[in-house]
Design a protein that fits this description.
4 helices; 4% strand
């Protein structure tokens, strides 16, 4: 479980780790379909609409099939190849800061 650390420190993370490529402001979506490595062999679509991030913390579960129960799981369980943002080299505090930032959108 991730715990609250420094609120708003995560605001810089989307720029450094390319989140804003698919989730640019002001709506935090580019409105384009994307394939971010979260599909399963049974999925036939291959690409999924990039969701907006406004109120994202209140809309669990996450990913196209609801497989991520928390925001943490998106990056800790379902992003092994950094295809859903470059997060594998982030510290626990940095991931926590990113999640705290997403809570205020």
């Amino acid at each position: 479980m991730f715990f609250r650390t420094r609120t708003n420190e995560g605001k810089e993370i989307p720029l450094k780790d390319r989140c804003d490529t698919c989730h640019p402001g002001p709506y935090f979506t580019n409105r384009k379909p994307a394939e971010v490595g979260t599909q399963f062999p049974m999925d036939t679509h291959g690409r999924f609409d990039v969701p907006h991030l406004n109120n994202i913390y209140e809309t669990a579960p996450y990913l196209h099939d609801g497989s991520a129960n928390t925001l943490e799981e998106i990056w800790t369980l379902f992003n092994p190849d950094d295809r859903h943002g470059v997060t594998n080299d982030m510290t626990k505090d940095q991931l926590n800061d990113l999640i705290e930032y997403l809570k205020i959108l």
